[in-house]
Design a protein that fits this description.
The complex is a heterodimer of chains A (188) and B (173).
Chain A (H helix, E strand, L loop, with lengths): L2 H9 L3 H23 L2 H18 L9 H20 L3 H11 L7 H18 L4 H12 L4 H8 L3 H25 L7
Helix pairs in contact in A: 1-2, 2-3, 2-4, 3-4, 4-8, 6-9, 7-9
Chain B lengths: L2 H9 L6 H13 L1 H22 L7 H28 L2 H32 L5 H4 L5 H36 L1
The chains are: A mainly alpha (188), B mainly alpha (173).
Bound molecules: zinc ion.
Amino acid sequence: MAEQEIIRKATEGNAEAFRLIVSQHQPLLYSVAYRFLGNGQDAEDMVQEAFIRLWKNLSKYRADVKLSTWLYKIVVNLCLDVLKSSHRRHQENLVEIKEKSKMNYSSADDEMNIRELHELIQEAASELTPRQKAVFILRDLEEMNVEEVGKILSMSPGNIKSNLYYARRQMSEKLKQYYQTTDKITIQ
Amino acid sequence: MNCRDFERRIYSYEENTPSERKLLDQHLDHCEACKQLAQEVFQWQAVIKKEAALKPEPGSPHQLTQRIMNGVMKEKSGSIIDVLADYLDSFFVRFAVGTLAILLISFFIYEQQVTVYSSSVHKEPTKKANHGPVLNMASYMRTYVKRIENEKAKAHTSRYSYYKSKQAEKNNL
Ligand SMILES: [Zn+2]
C-alpha cells in the first residue's frame, strides 16, 4: 500500500493503517528522542506522545510535507519543551544510558570504547543550548540535510549554520579536552 | 576575509556553498594556522560520525509499537465522548440551548397568565375586596339603608294606622 493510501485510511480511523505508520516511523523517532533525552524510558514516552498527537491531528496533514518531517517536527518540539523546562542534570542521564540503551555495536571489543565515546558526546551535548543541541542531533547524529533540518526546526539555513558552528566548536573542545587528559580511546 | 571568518567556514565545511568552499580551500593552502584547525575539526567530526553510526533502538520495537497503539486506542475510545463534549460546547448548541431556555420561560409565563384568566372565568368570582372591614362600606351601607327604609316604612305604617284609628274614632262619635 502506498504511503498516501495508508495515511488516508488512518485519517478515516483505520487502526491497522495507523499501526503501519507507527511501525515504519517509530525507529527514526526513537533515535531522535533518545539522543535528545539520553534515556530509553523517556524516549519511549516521547515517541508514544508524538504518535498520539499525530493520531489526533492526522486530518490536518497535507501531502506537501513528508510525513516523516511532520513526525520529526512533533517529536523534536516535545523534546525541546522537556529540555527547556526541566534543566535536568546530565549526570542523571548518563546513569540511565548504562542501564537502558541498546546500541548496535559491531563487535565486543568496540563496545567499551564506543560506549565511552557515546557517554562523552551525550555529556558534551547536554551543555549545548536546546537549539544548538537540536541542530547538532539532526544534522550531525541523524545526518539529515540542512533543508530538512530547516523544515523540522523552522530555521533558515543561515541560522542552522550559525548554531552548527557553536555546537561543533563546543563538541570539538570537549572531545579535545577528554582525549588530552586520557589515553583510553584510540581513534582510527 | 580574515582567519576569523574562515574559522566559521571550517566548522561548517560540508554546509558551505561550492564557491565558499573554493575560497576556503585556497586559504587553507596558504594559512598554516587555519590548516591545522581544519585538520583538528575534521578529526573530531570523524569521531562524531562514529557516534552517528550507532542508532539507538528501543529494547523491543514490537512492544513499543503495541504500547503506542494502546495509547492511541485509549484516545480513540475517549474521542467519542470528546466529540460529544466538543459538540455540546459548540456555539451553535449554546445558542440553541439558550433559545430553548427563553422559549420555556416565555411559555411558563404565558401559562401563568392563562391560568389567571381562566380561573376568573370558570371559578367562583372572588370577593376579596368585599371581605375586608374597610372595603365593605357599600355592602354595610346597603343594609343600613335598608334598615332605615324599613324603619321609615314602619313609621309610615304606624302613622297611617294611627290616622286610621283616629278616623274610626271620629266616625264613631
Ligand atoms: Zn587563516
